[in-house]
Write a structure and sequence with these properties.
One of its GO terms (molecular function) is kinase activity. One of its GO terms (biological process) is regulation of signal transduction. One of its GO terms (cellular component) is extracellular matrix. Helix 1 packs parallel to helix 4 (47-53), helix 8 packs parallel to helix 10 and helix 10 runs parallel beside helix 12. By secondary structure, this protein is α/β, with parallel strands linked by helices.
């Protein structure tokens, strides 16, 4: 470096404008040679780059008078890149003003202005660059996020994540330079970069944003991750507080709804003496460290909604303090035997798995469950109160369950159970065996559950009769036997269920007929209840066996829909406390007995799908249950329709009372002489007479246009009105509103054009019930709507409303946002209905690609509508509409509340640690 070269570089670095200009103007070789020097020939930074790096904006402005190249490239990048490196906003804006390229796809990514601003933590400059060139993030976004995580610039990480940069480090498929990115860091994920430099705050934020925590990262960086997950442990202040003996506070671990593919035992063993509750639900875990199940103080573990195929055993069941284990929605094939030997265990929930046996054996294709001797297995779960094994593949329940002598709630619905063990002594209150393959239920429950069982659900099985054991459940309040093949009711003397409130016998094979038995002497046309036998057997007619003497005073709901009733059993008419009676879809039922009117408390009477005779129009089935029952009560009293009415005309003498009556009756007017006294006459009015005149034309054509005259005449004169009928061509659209898919920051242009042959039509654009006016980001044209700087809030439906003096037509266009979660622009609405009413939830969404709509846990995409034909108390809850577009998901929620006449069943939602807990309130 010669003396002049060194002096000029030093002046540029210090920003000495006078010295710089002196050298440029008075140097023998002129100013051009120094500034035009090839950067590659210098052993130091180019002069212009040195000025930009040090942020001397005044010098930069002067150098442009010497035609310096604003995009002069070097090993340090462009002048703009080094200005971003130095963090000089003024210099950056000056260079951009003079034509500096913000993003050049051909430039090495590490030398771009974006990367230099990110690497050196200049948030303001990076924000400015993104605003000027947002599309650059499609190419550089992932690398910028990795670098920001490595350097620990949390504010920049937050900015990039808000711009929808893939938090797991993937390069978008739409990136134009996906194949050209070759530097090493493109293979590193943001989480790996942050962990490699021990950037704990960044790791915490990434985990908060549901970054993928895979197996390799956990194994390599478990210590850094352990520091980050400390925030997941909070003080536990619930029921275990009173059991605490030391001064150390109890803790609960909250890891649910993350994206953990693996966890490390050290995260939890550090809190072994304090951790009492651990929630690992809704992750991607494939295995659980054995140490977690054996933590000395742990009471509650939730492993639901993962990808677990097996669970570790509990080593010391004698000392284990586990009281609650949840592992629903996994792929478990068996249950660890130790679970049923934990003496403190109170609640075990394993819903929606693939469990084929409760005997912990090696499950394989060659394994035959019939080879296992159930009696050889013993359990010690004497404290177990709730066992939920619904939606599995169980075929039987081992007799070892008899050890659960504290069991109060047993849920086994949705399995393949063909037999149930003999009843055992325990305070069982709720038993759900619906959706299985039971042929009978004869469990000898006498002296076991007769005084405890309150709710029994045996629906969707293969029962052909109601066993004596069921009838002996004295405390039973809810009995569901729907969707079986029950042919007859048991004899009345079987029944002892004096507390029964709800009985569901829908979708069975019950008959009711009107007939006479020759061997007895009952009243003629008495109601009988009939059993259906196989076609080879003779039908036997027996008396109605509904024991109204037993539970007639308590029964509130009776569902006999979808049977084969030919007549309503007479004993049904004696259930005076009945509030809900469903007789729908008994297609042989033609009449209703007048005695049904005795049900004065009944507010819901289901008569759908029936072709009844003798019910007047004002008492149709459906909403007017009270009207039907009122009519039947009147019919029972042998009342007849009354069509007479008294009309009394009172007034002073000589004021025209007699004349008024004559005019109303269409008779000649009497002489104008006062009538003395009271005149009583009978006036018969024909039902067909009317003072309403109508002219109806079903299908108008062009020649029907013209003036029509309506003339009204009475004894006092006549009056007419002219009515003009104008026939125009039906308005329609020549071009309907278009649907668009636009990236954030882009421009959306809707257009529609009405076609009208009868005058001009005005156009308005509406969204969410509001008319859109020009201004701000909206520009409303005669046939178009332009939205500038589109954001995620702009997604949804836009209505093009065209109208003239005679017609209004509407066309709908949809705006979807690219690379964004689906937009649910019509979420389902909350409903409050009565029992038996029809429920309909509607949900609509837009996205790119077009999202599919699913409701709750449906396995196949459903239409936009979710319907419930007849709601009941069991339908109370939250209904979730999920819009899914590739890997992006949006949810919307609606609540269904069901009113049951005097009781209102309301869903209470307690949001605690992002979990929904549901309760019914009476």
């Amino acid at each position: 470096m010669d003396t002049l070269d060194g002096e000029f570089l030093n002046a540029c670095e210090r920003g000495n404008l006078n010295e710089v200009l002196n050298i440029l103007y008075y140097h023998d070789n002129g100013p051009v040679k120094l500034l035009k020097t090839d950067p590659n020939t210098l052993d130091h930074m180019h002069y212009f780059h040195a000025v930009c790096l040090n942020g001397h904006c005044d010098v930069v402005e002067q150098l442009f008078f010497f035609n310096v190249d604003v995009n002069l490239d070097s090993e340090y990048g462009t002048p703009l890149a080094v200005a971003c490196q130095g963090g000089h906003m003024g210099t950056v804006k000056t260079l951009v003003k003079h034509g500096a390229k913000i993003h050049d796809p051909n430039t090495n990514a590490t030398l771009t202005p974006f990367f230099q601003a990110c690497k050196h933590g200049h948030l303001d400059i990076l924000t400015y660059l993104i605003e000027e060139e947002p599309d650059a993030l499609l190419v550089l976004g992932s690398q910028l996020l990795v670098e920001a995580c490595r350097e620990g610039f949390l504010d920049i990480v937050v900015l990039l994540v808000s711009k929808n940069i893939d938090i797991d480090g993937g390069i978008p498929p739409s990136s134009p330079s996906r194949e050209s990115i070759a530097f090493d860091m493109s293979l590193e994920t943001p989480l790996q970069a942050a962990c490699s430099q021990n950037q704990v705050e960044v790791v915490e934020y990434l985990m908060q944003e549901k970054v993928e925590v895979n197996v390799s990262i956990v194994q390599k960086y478990y210590q850094v991750l352990g520091e980050a997950v400390r925030r997941n442990f909070t003080e536990h202040t619930d029921r275990y507080r009173k059991k605490q003996t030391g001064k150390t506070s109890l803790l609960k671990g909250k890891f649910s709804n993350g994206n953990f593919y693996d966890i490390h035992k050290s995260w939890f063993t550090d809190y072994a003496e304090q951790l009492v509750a651990l929630d690992l639900s809704s992750n991607q875990l494939h295995n659980v460290p054995k140490e977690i199940m054996n933590l000395p103080s742990i009471r509650e573990i939730d492993l639901s909604a993962n990808n677990l195929f097996e669970l570790p055993e509990v080593d010391n069941v004698e000392d284990s303090r586990l009281e609650e284990i949840k592992a629903s929605s996994n792929h478990l094939k068996h249950v660890p035997t130790s679970f049923f030997n934990i003496k403190c265990l109170r609640h075990l929930e394993l819903v929606n798995n693939e469990i084929i046996s409760l005997l912990n054996c090696d499950v394989s294709e060659q394994f035959d469950m019939d080879d296992v001797i159930p009696d050889a297995v013993t359990w010690q779960c004497h404290s177990l109160k709730s066992l939920n094994l619904a939606r599995n593949q169980l075929k039987s329940i081992p007799s070892a369950i008899h050890a659960a002598n504290s069991l109060e709630k047993l849920q086994l619905f949705g399995n393949k159970i063909t037999s149930f063990p003999m009843g055992w002594k325990c305070p069982l209150r709720i038993l759900n065996l619906s959706q299985n393959e039971l042929m009978d239920f004869k469990q000898s429950v006498f002296n076991t559950w007769t005084q405890t069982l309150v709710d029994l659900n045996l629906s969707y099985n293969k029962l052909t009769s109601i066993s004596w054991d069921i009838c002996q459940l004295q405390k039973l309040q809810y009995l569901d036997l729907s969707h079986n093949t029950i042919e007859n009711m048991p004899p009345k003397f079987y029944w002892t269920c004096s507390n029964l409130r709800k009985l569901n016998l829908a979708n069975n094979k019950l008959y009711g007929v009107s007939s006479r038995i020759e061997t007895a002497a009952p009243p003629r046309n008495s109601r009988r209840f009939t059993i259906t036998r196989s076609p080879t057997e003779e039908r036997v007619e027996i008396e109605d066996e509904f024991p109204h003497e037993v539970f007639g005073a308590t029964l509130e709901s009776l569902d006999l829909s979808d049977n084969k009733l030919a007549a309503v059993p007479s004993s049904v008419c004696q259930f005076t406390s009945l509030e809900d009676l469903n007789l729908s879809w008994n297609r042989q039922l033609r009449t209703l007995p007048p005695e049904l009117g005795n049900l004065t408390e009944c507010y819901q009477l289901g008569l759908e799908g029936l072709h009844l005779s003798g019910i007047p129009k004002f008492s149709r089935s459906g909403q007017y249950s009270k009207d039907v029952l009122t009519y039947l009560r009147a019919k029972q009293r042998k009342a007849v329709a009354y069509f007479r009415m008294k009309l009394m005309v009172i007034g002073l003498q000589g004021r025209g009372k007699t004349t008024l009556l004559a005019a109303l009756r269409g008779r000649p007017l009497p002489p104008n002489i006062s009538t003395v006294g009271i005149i009583v006459n009978e006036w018969t009015v024909s039902g067909s007479s009317s003072i309403l005149g109508k002219l109806k034309r079903d299908q108008t054509i062009a020649k029907d246009a013209g003036t029509y005259k309506c003339i009204a005449v009475n004894v006092r004169g006549r009056k007419s009105e002219n009515i003009t009928l104008r026939i125009g061509e039906e308005a329609r659209f020549e071009k309907k509103a278009n649907s668009l898919s636009v990236a954030i920051g882009g421009k959306a242009v809707f257009s529609c054009r009405p076609l009208s042959t009868d005058g001009e039509m005005s156009i308005k654009w509406r969204r969410n019930g509001q008319t859109i006016q020009s201004g701000g980001k909206y520009d409303v044209g005669s046939e178009s709507l332009t939205i500038s700087d589109v954001s995620s809030k702009d997604c949804g439906e836009y209505y093009c409303v065209a109208r003239d003096g005679h017609s209004i037509i509407t066309s709908i266009g949809t705006l979807a946002i690219k690379n964004e979660k689906p937009c649910i622009h019509k979420p389902p609405e909350h409903l409050q209905l009565d029992v038996g009413m029809y429920a309909r939830f509607y949900c609509a969404a837009s996205g790119d690609p077009t999202p599919e709509i699913l409701w709750q846990n449906a396995k196949q995409p459903n239409p936009n509508v979710f319907e419930i034909e007849k709601v009941n108390i069991s339908h109370v809850g939250v209904y979730t509409c999920t819009a899914r577009s590739k890997d992006k998901v949006s949810n919307a929620y609606a609540f269904l509340t069901v009113d049951n006449h005097y009781r209102k069943y309301t869903l209470l939602v307690f949001v605690r640690e992002f979990k929904f807990d549901f309760q019914y309130r009476y």
